[in-house]
Design a protein that fits this description.
With 145 residues, the chain is α/β, with parallel strands linked by helices. It contains 3 helices and 5 strands, in the order βααβαβββ. The protein has a 3-stranded parallel sheet with strand order 2-1-3, sandwiched between helices. A two-stranded antiparallel ribbon has the order 4-5. The longest helix has 28 residues. Bound molecules: zinc ion.
C-alpha cells in the first residue's frame, strides 16, 4: 500500500450470535450455528490482530449469517436463511434497519470518507473458509477474492 492508500478492514461473519428477540427461531440449532454455516471461525481474532497491527479500525459483525447475511445486498435472496426467510415482510424490514444497515452504512461511510480525502481504498474483508465444502477439500491457506 502506498501512503495515499486507505485500508478499510471489515469482518462480516465474525460471530454466531442471535439477537434475543429472534432466539426462538433458532431453538435446537446450536450445532448448526457453531458450524461454518453459522459463522467464520477464526475470522474475528485474525481481523482484530490485523486491526491492532495495522492500526486501522475494524468494522465487524458478530451476529450469525443465518440471522441476516451481512455480506449480501437486500435484493439478494440469499440474504435470508431458512430460519428467517419466512418472516413477515415488516419483520424482515425491521431486521435490515436495526441489524444489517448499520454495518453497511459504516463501511460505505469509511470508503466515502477515504475517497473524499483523496485516498485510494483497499478493502480487506476477513473471512475464513471451511476446509471442506460439499465434498471438495480446500487446501489453500489464504484466498484473495
Ligand atoms: Zn465469511
Amino acid at each position: 500500500m502506498s501512503r495515499t492508500d486507505c485500508l478499510v478492514l471489515t469482518c462480516e461473519h465474525g460471530g454466531n450470535r442471535i439477537p434475543r428477540p429472534y432466539a426462538h427461531l433458532f431453538h435446537g440449532s446450536a450445532k448448526l450455528l457453531a458450524s461454518h454455516r453459522g459463522w467464520d471461525r477464526g475470522a474475528l481474532p485474525l481481523a482484530r490482530l490485523l486491526s491492532r497491527e495495522l492500526r486501522r479500525p475494524l468494522l465487524a459483525v458478530t451476529w450469525s449469517r443465518l440471522f441476516v447475511e451481512a455480506n449480501r445486498s437486500p435484493t439478494n435472496r440469499h440474504i435470508w436463511s431458512d430460519f428467517t426467510k419466512g418472516l413477515p415482510y415488516e419483520e424482515r424490514r425491521q431486521i435490515l434497519e436495526q441489524w444489517w444497515r448499520p454495518h453497511r452504512e459504516q463501511v460505505e461511510r469509511a470508503v466515502a470518507d477515504a475517497i473524499a480525502r483523496g485516498h485510494r481504498v483497499v478493502h480487506i474483508a476477513v473471512h475464513s473458509f471451511t476446509p471442506e465444502l460439499d465434498g471438495d477439500v480446500r487446501n489453500a491457506d489464504v484466498g484473495l477474492l
